[in-house]
Amino acid sequence: MIIAVTGLAREARIVAGTGVTTLSCGGRLGLLRERLERAVAENISGIISIGVAGGLAPALKSGDCVIAYEIVSEGQHIPTDASWTGRLAGRLPGAIVAPLTSSDGIVLSRTSKAELFRATGAYAVDMESHVAARFAGEHRIPFAALRTIADPAGSELPPLVSAALTPTGTVNHLAVLQAIFLDPRQIPPLIRTARESNAAFAALLRCRDILGLGLAGPDGS
Q1: What's the rounded mean pLDDT across residues 140-167?
Q2: Residues 65/50, Cβ–Cβ less than 8 Å
Q3: Which regions of 85-165 does DSSP assign to beta strands (E)?
Q4: Are 71 and 120 in contact (CB under 8 A)?
Q5: Of 78, 95, 151, 162, which is least surrounded by CB within 10 A?
Q6: pLDDT-based confidence at residue 123 (cuts at 50, 70, 90)
Q7: pLDDT for 209-220, tens place per residue?
Q8: CA separation for the pair 117, 55 (Å, rounded)
Q9: 145: β partners
Q10: Which residues are CB-neighbours of 180 under 8 A, at least 6 positions away?
Q11: What's the DSSP call for residue 54?
């Protein structure tokens, strides 16, 4: 069985399938760790962090796919499983194989993205891969990471997205509406963010369809 770690319920719906169990945490990293601890009692053959991400490399655009050969976090460079990463790249020849980093919170601004790119050299940022990578390493489980770009490096996210997710990875529509009511200026960037996210989700679905059952996991099937 493959464990697919996602932040969003929408990601999980795309990725789920025979032989793949999804864990969504809505950006709650402690919750993700707890769910991984419970799942490890099962017969796990691999863990993959998969979903959408923010772009850090300026050349990336919405819908581009990044396959990580390492996760850079707090000065550590955690390698992914070389064989699994190679199979992912072989089946997705248009993907970029590059470092990925993670943040404990959503990276909203262009300035913050540029600083993170300079500090880590990572091409994209998410909120789950560092937790999943460390857990996989502790338990000697093969690990891979694949992310499609939602907001590029030059795109600013509206502040409301920081409070927009529930622990199940769904959108808290009431919180979004309240934030818009308090600051209607967030509407244009929210519309742009939704458009960018849709491109990332469409790319994720294409990747899932190409990879098929098992997500090119450790057994190579």
Answers
A1: 88
A2: no
A3: 96-102, 124-126, 143-149
A4: no
A5: 162
A6: very high
A7: 999 989 998 864
A8: 9
A9: 49
A10: 160, 186, 187, 190
A11: E
